Amino acid sequence: MVQADKKLTEPKKFDLNNYLKQKKVLVEQALDSSIAIARPEKIYEAMRYSLLAGGKRLRPILCLATCELTGGTIEMAMPTACALEMIHTMSLIHDDLPSMDNDDFRRGKPTNHKVYGDDIAILAGDGLLAYAFEYVATQTQNVKAENIIKVVACLGHTVGAAGLVGGQVLDLESEGKPDITAETLSFIHTHKTGALLNASVVSGAILADAQKADINRLSNYAQNIGLAFQIIDDILDITATDEQLGKTAGKDLEAQKATYPSLWGLEKSRFKAQELVDSAIAELSTYGAKAEPLRAVAKYIVTRDR
Amino acid sequence: MVQADKKLTEPKKFDLNNYLKQKKVLVEQALDSSIAIARPEKIYEAMRYSLLAGGKRLRPILCLATCELTGGTIEMAMPTACALEMIHTMSLIHDDLPSMDNDDFRRGKPTNHKVYGDDIAILAGDGLLAYAFEYVATQTQNVKAENIIKVVACLGHTVGAAGLVGGQVLDLESEGKPDITAETLSFIHTHKTGALLNASVVSGAILADAQKADINRLSNYAQNIGLAFQIIDDILDITATDEQLGKTAGKDLEAQKATYPSLWGLEKSRFKAQELVDSAIAELSTYGAKAEPLRAVAKYIVTRDR
């Protein structure tokens, strides 16, 4: 009896791989059914090509997890989760263009403009961005109208000049300047990567009608994992192979881009990433076992190899 | 006495020029204060460069006029009016890019990419598009939350593959094919021009909490003036000078684009435009004098010379 009791009360180890796999299936089903092909077919195909090209689906999963953590449901958050992936995909399509980062491969497949041409790639990005907002506005169910508006505001702020776009501009301006400051590098990444991870977490909480204090705590969590995520990205660009990354490795060094490893070295960069993940996890202390998915995602960020 | 009475009851002729001038001043003030310069300065400057480059401001003015007609106020509609101009500007910036229509001049000034480069021009468009949604969501006052969400949905639908983006794709595909059908030409223009004019009118009515029947009537008005507007645009591309247009005239012929004049000839095109304007005005019969601004705008569309 004692042993049986122990079994019942002992917390089961959280299986992140299984969690991510299950949620990814849900997200990909939702993404697949979010865009139907219509006239002119080519633009819908181009949008679907990049949106359904795989990837970790980390942003949608964070949105779903945070919504559940703060008392909401998967169903309430799914349209926003899809919108986050549409926005992320749009930013990848535009960043990969020849006039920007000029990348030929993404997630192991030719980039959008390599398949459809620069004109269609620009328009596919525009189409995904516009559709993200339409999708949230038309598909979100059982959420207070005020909260849907807050999510729209949050997504808009995150993509625009105050977020992704601003980060990409400073990133482009910093190319060929390997001696930029840590402050500029941090600006680039809090805008380019951090902002959308933050929006993923915050929007999930807004949809669940979470309290301000919870939203702030979760936003701190997101900002910490966002920066850790970028540091690890920079490290992987040096240490991983093309095959592991699904894109060209070593691009940063080639483009003379300042990165965390170039600023701090590999060892200190790894240490900093771990420190950030520890801080992120500390923000979750009040939530107990319910926050296991978010804790596991934070840990995964520093241990991933692609 | 009789004469004085007659003066009082005789409807004063509506002064459209004065109306457009006054409303344009209001819209430009609102646009100017909508975007402040922040870091990185270049992107905000690029966004402001095109947003504040002049133009008729027809879309915002239609939104304000329709909101007032259906019982709302200028203040309720101004954030959406600005968003419509941000969206319109974004579509011009992206359409002008070398990989699309490759235009060097717009509204008498060098196009965005000519001043800031292709990369920044793409990002300025993205920034304006994202900001349009953020602006509606954060700035709209005294409007039911449900109606703000409907406006977001309407704007998203209008920009995306089901609207502007889809129209531009079919337009690009039709280049060098002067023998496309009237049906394809109509698809291009109902999406490229008509959709945003329709959204301008419909969103104004939604914000004022108008009835479904009013929205339908005003949407019919908008679709008719939208097509008339495009026919006149095609005519002006042939008959006007570069100076009048503020952009290169004769581009359609050069690009071997099918246009209404190439399909119908100039005379029949003018006749059709007039017919559409008459139909548009007929939709407004129930509104009496209140609808004079919308009637005058419809008439202006066929008589303008740029």
Mean pLDDT rating of chain A: 92
The first-level CATH class of chain A is given as Mainly Alpha
Number of domains of chain A: 1
Question: What ranges of chain A have pLDDT less than 50 throughout 5 or more consecutive residues?
Answer: none
Taking all Cα atoms into account, the compactness measure Rg of chain A is 19 Å
The sequence of SSEs of chain A as H and E is HHHHHEEHHHHHHHHHHH
Per DSSP, the total helix count of chain A is: 16
- Going across the biggest sheet of chain A, name each strand in turn: 1-2
> So what's the oligomer here?
homodimer
Strand content of chain A: under 5%
Q: How would you classify the helix and strand content of chain A by structural class? A: mainly alpha
Give the total of beta strands of chain A.
2
CATH fold description of chain A: Farnesyl Diphosphate Synthase
Please give the CATH architecture of chain A. Answer: Orthogonal Bundle
CATH H-level homologous superfamily name of chain A: Farnesyl Diphosphate Synthase
Q: What separation lies between the terminal Cα atoms of chain A?
A: 45 Å
The two chains with the largest interface, and their residue counts, are: A-B, 57 and 57 residues
